[in-house]
Amino acid sequence: MLEIRNLHVSVEGKPILRGIDLDLRAGEVHAIMGPNGSGKSTLAHVLAGRDGYVVTDGEVRYRGQDLLALAPEERAHEGVFLAFQYPVEIPGVANVYLLKAALNALRKHRGEAELDAMDFLALVRDKLGLMEMDEALLYRAVNQGFSGGEKKRNEILQMAVLEPRLAILDETDSGLDIDALKVVANGVNALRNPERAIVLVTHYQRLLDHIVPDRVHVLAQGRIARSGGPELARELEARGYGWIEAQAGEGGREAAPEAGEAGR
Amino acid sequence: MSAAREHYRAQFAQREAELPGATLPWLRRQRAEALERFAERGLPTLRDEDWKYTNVAAIEKRPFETRPAAANGLAAREVARFALDRCQRVVFVNGRFVPELSRLDALAGATIGSLAAALAREPGRVEAVLAAEPAAAHGFAALNAAFWSDGLWIDLAPGTVVEAPLHALYLTLPDGGASPATFPLNVVSAAGGAGVTLLEHYVGPDDAIYLTDAVTRIVAGEGATVRHMRLQQEGRRAFHIAEVGAAQATGSRFDSLALAFGAMLSRAGIATRFDGEGCSTELLGLYVGDGRRHFDHHTLIDHAHPRGVSREFYKGVLDGAARAVFNGRVVVRPDAQRTDALQANHNLLLSDEAEVDTKPQLEIYADDVKCSHGATVGQIDPVQRFYLRARGIDDAQAQALLVRAFAAEIVERVRFAPLRARLQGLLPGQIADEMGVSPCAEPVTN
């Protein structure tokens, strides 16, 4: 579904990603882990098409097409979804309007009829139940006045409504207490299926106790320093990131190893 | 003497005898004095502090025809186009009242209609209201006082509350030839406990150069409520200058909504004065434009007595090389203790060439007061835009949605539902109709 080859990305002239290779097949869940500043969020944003991220080398193919040539909305129409680390507040725009406009944009692109108000609300109520969210949040402005946990649940609610083919969750676990983490994890697990691929970007192993990945990749200094099964996450939890960073440093110390994590 | 002064002097000499009330000595004198005032001052220039960002030289240069063109056959169609549901309607075409296009309900205690007709019917009453008129603040107000030929007349007896909002539509429909000027004079007199909601709505064709020079005088008696709205939708090449002045007696409420979408150059001066204790006012404004449009809003809230409350929120959205001026003056006089005044002006610039000059001006001479103000100028937030696009909303739609989100703070405060609905269509860009799902969020209560 997703093939990333030798991806190099700079932000404001500073190289952040320095040769990422990654293959993701439908049905798989991959975790991207790594210390702060390793480029995890940059990878998530560049896949979603954020401005200001300059691809200097490499390519990304998504279901056989050049993902990087598509505008952010075209990627969304093709089934790419990014759950934001910091969900954006949009005062004045109702949450329910955004959900409906997003879903209808997707359906229109697929040549499907727009959902009528009744069917749409039935669908959304079903997903609200999954995320254990209050219906009142639908009529509030997007993310405005939401608690940290409500914002993260709202991201997964959008994902549940939009049913993407490729979901990238950027530190969805950060800032969540254990109960909220379980709700979010349940929401994500409910969306696991053979046609969908999920990328979990996370700093901590604890999310992976609830959403067990097929593969774990560790990013350090803009490269994948190590890949393995779920046991790699547990090893990181026990040993920290230092040893991997030290190993990665051997290869490319001269090329800005302190590169900061952008895209906040 | 400038060409403009010569021109209007000559026009006045020709037309004096045919203007309404020409046989009434007090009115003849009032008009003649206004013309003298204009002859002394001329039109404002950039050297006038209040006009330093609004250049009216283009109006000065053009000899506008003050004699109203005859109403033509297009009027009925245009009225149908701009009509709003659920309201009474008073239509003026080229400055003249057109009864057959108007729709007024009879209500005991309320006289609503044409000022010229009221003058013919009850000159004493009109004199009582107009005699108290303050001297014109600038050349445009002086020209209006000299040349007005009609306008809205609302006279409410004590306790008379007019339920249905009043839609006053001012259509300019030039008949070719000279560039016309109209001088509407609107008078609202609400006695104690009376209440009325009115919308002044100015429209005209995009292909004609014309001038609207309007003045509105509002008197709110004790405990009266006057909700005044104006929607400026003049043609692309038009000039629109307006003054709205309110005087509020004890415990009265005056609300003003100033919406500006049209004209090449427009200016609205909106002022209210608290003449008694416990008055309240809310001034709202929204200006939205592109191209080379110029909007100017000058407001004044005069807290002359204690315990007055004022709220002022103006917002602007500017694209292309459009330019806006906002000057919000709030005066709190020495006696006006326990005043509560809040003012904000926020602007959204959609292009690099758009420009805004915003100036909050607080003058506080009392010590027990609560006053604050703020002004901002910003652009569409790229993170918000990306968030919407990442959800599949295309870029143009995302911008349109964010513009609506920005304007929502004003739009949502418009109580008159047919106008609120009309505003959605006047905001730039198209947003998808999500079948009954409004883009507007419920307000967050802080």
Description:
- The complex is a heterodimer of chains A (264) and B (446).
- Chain A has 264 residues and is an alpha/beta fold.
- Helices cover 37% and strands 27% of the residues of chain A.
- Chain A has nine helices and twelve strands.
- Chain A has helices at 40-48, 72-77, 95-109, 117-130, 148-162, 178-190, 206-210, 230-239, 242-252, and strands spanning 2-11, 14-24, 29-33, 53-62, 65-66, 80-83, 90-94, 141-142, 166-170, 197-202, 215-220, 223-228.
- Chain A has a six-stranded mixed β-sheet, sandwiched between helices. Chain A has a four-stranded antiparallel β-sheet with strand order 2-1-4-5. In chain A, strands 7-8 form a two-stranded antiparallel sheet.
- The longest helix of chain A is centred in the middle third of the chain and has 15 residues, at 95-109.
- Chain A starts with a strand and ends in a 12-residue tail after the last helix.
- With 446 residues, chain B is of the alpha/beta class.
- Chain B has one domain.
- Helices cover 23% and strands 36% of the residues of chain B.
- In chain B, the strands form two sheets. In chain B, strands 2-1-5-8-10-12-14-16-18-20 form a ten-stranded mixed β-sheet, with helices on one face. In chain B, strands 3, 4, 6, 7, 9, 11, 13, 15, 17 and 19 form a ten-stranded mixed β-sheet that branches.
- Chain B is globular and about 70 Å long.
- Chains A and B meet through helix 2, strand 7, helix 3 and strand 8 of A and helix 8 and helix 9 of B.
